[in-house]
Design goal:
The protein is of the alpha/beta class. It has helices at 21-32, 45-56, 71-85, 108-136, 157-176, 211-224; strands at 12-16, 36-41, 62-65, 90-93, 139-144, 182-189, 232-235. It binds NADP nicotinamide-adenine-dinucleotide phosphate.
């Protein structure tokens, strides 16, 4: 067992999309477990409030800002996070967006937006982080996929296409990084009660997962390393008893 990957040891973690939903719950969960965080998001009051909440609980998060579609900003934010933290052990690619509409009603610009954030944005973040992890011969990349990474549904063309593409990127990287000490995991949630897709969570099926459940699973993926590697983890709401 390598010393850097001792199970349950505190890690330095860069998390994208921490302002709300799964990202916010993950940030709070990881901070409460003693991990050191770099919160990478677009500037917002929510991001500042999250950092303040973690600080009031005794944590010391680093806040760096970038839109994942802006390569220059991403490189600069990741450089800043590495400098502040000393090193980054874990990268969580959580930032994402969805547009739900029948394909023929989905604008070309909406298609491009989903792809730019969920595929190219994640690739940009990974490309900016990988030299650091390769130099350390250690790193854990965790991509937040979806149940739509492998199963599509009506109104999900752009979103499912983006998550299928992310699945392909995840699996290709795994092959290319084999033996380097940099490993790649993917977590694929089913429906989660967040504002995802611009939809009020109170209007979503209340049997769906709480974001804290995904946060718990992400912490497990991180802390398990050293015992073994959780590669792909699918989490779905438990079916209601009839
Ligand atoms: N909710 C679900 O049912 C569900 C199910 C499976 C998988 N997922 C996945 O889980 C992840 C998080 O989703 P969520 O449900 O927590 O959604 P959410 O509440 O809408 O949060 C999305 C996060 O992504 C960030 N983001 C969006 N576009 C960005 C951009 N261009 N640059 C940087 N950050 C950007 C948002 O930041 P801003 O504050 O700057 O907008 C926000 O922090 C996504 O990858 C999503 O595909 C969600």
């Amino acid at each position: 067992m390598s010393a850097t990957n001792t199970p349950n040891k505190a890690r330095n973690i860069l998390l994208t999309g921490p302002s709300r939903g799964i990202g916010r719950a993950t940030a709070l969960g990881l901070a409460a477990r003693g991990h050191q965080l770099a919160l990478m998001g677009r500037p917002s009051a929510e991001l500042d409030q999250l950092a303040e909440t973690i600080r009031s609980g005794g944590g010391a998060p680093v806040v760096v800002t970038a839109d994942v579609r802006d390569e220059t900003a991403v490189k600069s934010a990741i450089g800043e996070a590495i400098e502040e933290l000393g090193h980054v052990d874990v990268l969580i690619n959580n930032a994402g967006m969805g547009r739900y509409a029948p394909f023929e009603e989905l604008g070309a610009d909406e298609w491009e937006h989903v792809m730019a954030v969920n595929v190219t944005g994640v690739a940009t973040v990974i490309r900016s982080m990988l030299p650091h992890m390769r130099a350390a011969s250690n790193g854990h990349i965790i991509n937040v996929g979806s149940i739509r990474s492998t199963e599509t549904a009506a109104t999900c063309s752009a979103y499912a296409a983006s998550k299928f593409a992310l699945d392909a990127l995840t699996k290709t990287l795994r092959l290319e990084l084999d033996g380097t000490g940099v490993v790649v995991s993917q977590i694929c949630p089913g429906g989660v009660l967040t504002e995802f897709g611009g939809i009020d969570p109170t209007t979503k099926p209340q049997s769906w997962l709480q974001p804290e459940a995904i946060a718990e699973a992400v912490a497990m993926i991180i802390e398990f390393r050293g015992l073994g590697l959780v590669r792909d983890l699918t989490i779905v709401p438990e079916p209601l008893r009839s």
